Amino acid sequence: MDFKNSEKLYKKGLKHLVGAVNSPVRAFASVGGNPLFIKKAKGTVITDVDGNDYIDYVLSYGPMILGHRHKKVEKAIKKALKNGYTFGASTKNEIKLAKIVCDAFPGMDKVRFVNSGTEAVLSALRLARAYTGNDKIIKFAGCYHGHSDALLVAAGSGLVTLSLPGSKGVPEGAVKNTLIANYNDLESVKAHFEKHDDIAGVIIEPIAGNMGVVLPQGNFLKELKAYLETKNALLIVDEVMTGFRSKFGGAQELLGVEADITCLGKVIGGGFPVGAYGARNEIMEMVSPLGAMYQAGTLSGNPIAMAAGIATLTELKKQNPYQKFDEIAARLEQMLREKANKHGVDIVVNRYGSMINPFFKRGVVTNFEEAQESDTKKFAVFFWELVKNGIFLPPSQFEAWFLSSALSEKDLEQTENAIDKAMEAVAKQ
Ligand SMILES: *Cc1c(COP(=O)(O)O)cnc(C)c1O
C-alpha cells in the first residue's frame, strides 16, 4: 500500500490551507505521518487518492450512519437539487424534518435548525441563560461541545476546577461563567451549586464520545436530572453525536432521561451541514421571532440538507438497526479483547450502541483523567497497522469509532484480521 498521491496533496495543501486541513483532527497530529486524502466512498468502503480501499469506521465522525451514498438518500438529494439550492424563505421539508425530530424526542415540542453542532450548542446555552436568567453553565471535563468560546475550557485533570481557557484567543471573560465538573461524579456538580446561585444549567454528552467512549455509570444521568430539578437549573443534553445513533430517540431514549434542551447534529443532516436545538414549548418560545432570544442563519434549514436529513432518518427508522449495532459492537469488543490477549497487550474496551473504542491501558475508563492514562504511542502503532490492512479509523486515541448499518460479515472478518496484525505490531513495538 502506498500513499504517494496523499503525500503530494498534503504538501500542496500546506500552502493555502492551515495544516492542509479544515478541521484539526484530520491532520493526524497524534498518530504522526501523512494525512490521507479521500477520493470517494460507497457503502462501508472509503477510497483514498492512491486508490487504497478501507472499511470506514470514521463515517465523517458519525453522520454516515447508513453507510456512504445510500440509494434513497442520494435520490432525495438529486430531486431536491432540481428545485434550487437555497431561498431565504421557509420550505415544506423543514416542517417535515421538524416533525420527525420532535416525534423522536418526547422533550422537544419545537426545534430550530442551524448549520452545525457547534452552532446548536452555543444557541442552546444562550437559550438556557435567557430562560433561567442565570449566566453560569456547568460542563464536564473531557466532554466536547463544539468550538464556541464559552465551551473551549481546558479540561485537563489538573485544571478541572480552574476554568482556564483551552485555546489561545478565548478571553477569560468568555469562560468565567463556565464551571467544570467530573464525568460520573454528581458530588462535583453539587459542589458548584453550593458555591453559586446563578447556574442556568448543566451540559453533558449523555454517552461521552470525545474523550473516547465513556459511559455514564449507573443512573448518573437520571440522578443529575433529578438534582437539577431541585435547583431549577436545566439539563442540556448534547446529542450531536448520539442523536439517532444510540437509539432513534438518542441516548435519552436509551437511558430513560428527558433533557430540558436537546442539541443535535451529525446524523440529522445525512452528510450535509445541519444542527438543531429543541425543547418544550415554554422554553422554545423564548427564541426569536416568538421571544427575545436572538438567533438566525442565512442557510439554516437549507433545502438540500433537509432532504438528506429526512431521507436518512426515514430509512434509519425503517431499518431500526440498533439491535444489529449492539451485536456488531459486541463482536468488535470480543475481537479487540481476544487479539490483545493473544499478543499480551493491555486494553480497555468501552462501547455503547454503535460507538466503541479501545484504550491502551489497564483498569477502567470512566472519566477524562482515566482516559488520559492511555498509551498514545501504542495507539499510533495500532492505527497505522490498521490503515495498512484496510481499516479507516479516527486518528486519535480519544475518538469513538462509529458503525454504519451497511457493515457486512465480510467487513467484520477483514476487520478481525487487521486487528490481529495491529495488536501483534503493538506488542512488538
Ligand atoms: C461533533 C460534536 C459537536 C460539534 O459539532 P460540529 O458539527 O463539529 O460543530 C458538538 N458536540 C458533540 C457531542 C459532538 O460530538
SSE diagram, text form:
Blueprint: H1 4-16, E1 38-42, E2 45-48, E3 53-56, H2 71-81, H3 92-104, E4 110-114, H4 117-132, E5 136-140, H5 172-175, E6 178-181, H6 186-195, E7 199-204, H7 220-230, E8 234-238, H8 250-255, E9 261-264, E10 275-279, H9 281-284, H10 303-319, H11 322-343, E11 348-352, E12 355-359, H12 368-371, H13 376-388, E13 391-392, E14 401-402, H14 409-428
Parallel strand pairs: 3-13, 5-6, 5-7, 7-8, 8-9
Antiparallel strand pairs: 1-2, 2-3, 4-10, 9-10, 11-12, 12-14
Helix pairs in contact: 2-10, 3-10, 11-14, 13-14
Bound molecules: pyridoxal-5'-phosphate.
Keywords: Cytoplasm, Isomerase, Porphyrin biosynthesis, Pyridoxal phosphate
Protein name: Glutamate-1-semialdehyde 2,1-aminomutase
Family: Belongs to the class-III pyridoxal-phosphate-dependent aminotransferase family. HemL subfamily.
How would you describe what is shown here?
- With 429 residues, the protein is of the alpha/beta class.
- The chain folds into 2 domains: 4-69 and 321-427, Aspartate Aminotransferase, domain 1 (Alpha-Beta Complex); 71-319, Type I PLP-dependent aspartate aminotransferase-like (Major domain) (Aspartate Aminotransferase, domain 2, 3-Layer(aba) Sandwich), CATH 3.40.640.10.
- 38% of the residues lie in helices and 14% in strands.
- The protein contains 14 helices and 14 strands.
- The protein has helices at residues 4-16, 71-81, 92-104, 117-132, 172-175, 186-195, 220-230, 250-255, 281-284, 303-319, 322-343, 368-371, 376-388, 409-428, and strands at 38-42, 45-48, 53-56, 110-114, 136-140, 178-181, 199-204, 234-238, 261-264, 275-279, 348-352, 355-359, 391-392, 401-402.
- It is globular, with a radius of gyration of 21 Å.
- The site of pyridoxal-5'-phosphate has 15 residues, from helix 4.
